[in-house]
Every structure is written in structure tokens, then in C-alpha cells.
Amino acid sequence: MRHITTHDAPATGLRGIGDTSWHTRGTCHGMDVEDAEAVFFPGPRDHEEIAEAKELCGWCPVRRECLDFALENVLKEGVWAGMTEAERRPLHDNLHQRLDYRRVTAFFQGRNVHLTEAERQVVIDHAYVRGWRPDRLAAALQISHKHARDVLRQAANKVLDRDRNYGVPRPKKKRKKTSKAKDIPTPTAPGTQQPASRPAASAPAHAALGKAA
User: Fold this and answer.
1) pTM for this structure?
2) Residues at the annotated binding site for [4Fe-4S] cluster?
3) What stretches of 30-144 show up as alpha helix (H) in DSSP?
4) Can you tell me the distance from the alpha carbon of 92 to that of 164, in angstroms, rounded to the nearest whole number?
5) Which intervals hold domain 4Fe-4S Wbl-type (predicted)?
6) pLDDT for residue 213
7) Can you tell me the distance from the alpha carbon of 3 to that of 47, in angstroms, rounded to the nearest whole number?
8) Which residues are part of a known binding site?
9) What's 169's DSSP letter?
10) Please, what is the angle between helix 117-129 and helix 101-108, to 10°?
11) Quick count: other Cβ atoms within 10 Å of Cβ 40?
């Protein structure tokens, strides 16, 4: 589920796997170890410590990175990103269903980001549409070549079933521009009369060749 990070990949604002550089920008950075232990790992009834932790997290600029770190590393104890254990429990239970398209985009940009099962399936579908070969997908997701071939075949069957049930969308036909008729009279100002066209005088069929004898 990982992609080798390239040095020229654009930044997306998402934390990469194993990246802890965001720690230094946290509000809790530099706190005494014992104080941090008491504030961010309180008991379920230590309401004052919980309120203090939430207040500190409210000013923190890296709350999203903190929450992602706790979810992706299954850290169910303590206060992370201003959320207690009970508040994070639904997020832990439904993490496999998270679908963040920013992560899918970051994956195709070469970022080494965490992907859930739902995000991984979207990556596979888009990889098939982009024409990826099994060896490329296997290296990107770090799976076997056979597994990559099987999931690409499943993605192809999904597209085939979709086209069979809903039809293949046809491109819209462009309307041809109708050319204006050449014999359309030009409009005239009201009150003016157009000159009547005179019929052309026909020439005599035969001219006189001479006097009769």
C-alpha cells in the first residue's frame, strides 16, 4: 500500500508514512514529559486535565496530522488532536471506510501516504483506467505481481459491467453551421421602395438579310 516517494513530487500537505517532522510545530512540543503525561493521558474522570488538553489542542496548527498519526498507528489511548479515546473510537472503527481523494491524488503524485481499503480500491480502479501494467501496480502497492494482475482484472470487469448495464456514453455531435443563402435580399429602410427589375429585352431572332426581289 505504499508508493516510493520521489524527490520531485509536489507537496500535498498530507503526512507521509513515518514522517514525524510535524511534531516540532505542535503546541505540545517542548512540554515537560511528566506534565505532558498528566495532561494528554488523563483518566476518564479527570475532567480538568481533559479540558486543559482540549484547550492546548485548539491552538495547535497540526491537529490534522496529529489525528491521522493516532488513527494510522492505532493509538487509542490519550488525547490526540483534542479528541479523547471515546471520541476517536468511531474513527478507529471506521478507518477502513475513509475515502479521502487528496490521498489518492497524492499517491499518483508519488507521495508515500497511508491508504485505507476504500482509498486503495479507488487507486486500483484509476490505475486500470490510466493503463497501468501489473508490474507497475505491484511495485506501487508493494503486492505480488499475481495479486496486481488479479485486481486489475477485477477493475476491468467492473468497467465492463458498468458499460453493459448503463451503456457507453457517446460523444456529442457538433452541429454544422448552416450557410446563408446567397439570394436573400438585403433589408431596406422602411418607407423606401426598391426599383422594379425590368425584364431584359430580347433581341430579334433573325436580322433582315436584304431586299426582296
Assistant:
1) 0.54
2) 28, 57, 60, 66
3) 33-40, 47-58, 63-72, 85-93, 101-108, 117-129, 134-141
4) 38
5) 27-90
6) 42
7) 42
8) 28, 57, 60, 66
9) P
10) 50
11) 19
Averaged in consecutive runs of 10 residues, what is the pLDDT profile of the chain (213 residues)?
37 59 88 90 88 92 89 89 92 85 87 86 93 93 93 92 78 66 57 56 51 45
Q: Within its chain, how far is the Cα of 152 from the centroid?
A: 20
Hey, how many other C-beta atoms are within 10 angstroms of the C-beta on 85?
A: 16
- Which three cell numbers mark 149? 494482475
User: CA torsion sign, 119 to 124 to 127 to 129?
Assistant: negative
Contacts of residue 63, defined as CB under 8 A and 6 or more positions apart, other chains included, come to 57, 81, 82
Q: What is the pLDDT of residue 11?
A: 42
**Would you call 80 helix, strand, or coil by DSSP?**
strand
For the record, the C-alpha cell of 36 comes out as: 505532558
d(CA 81, CA 54): 8
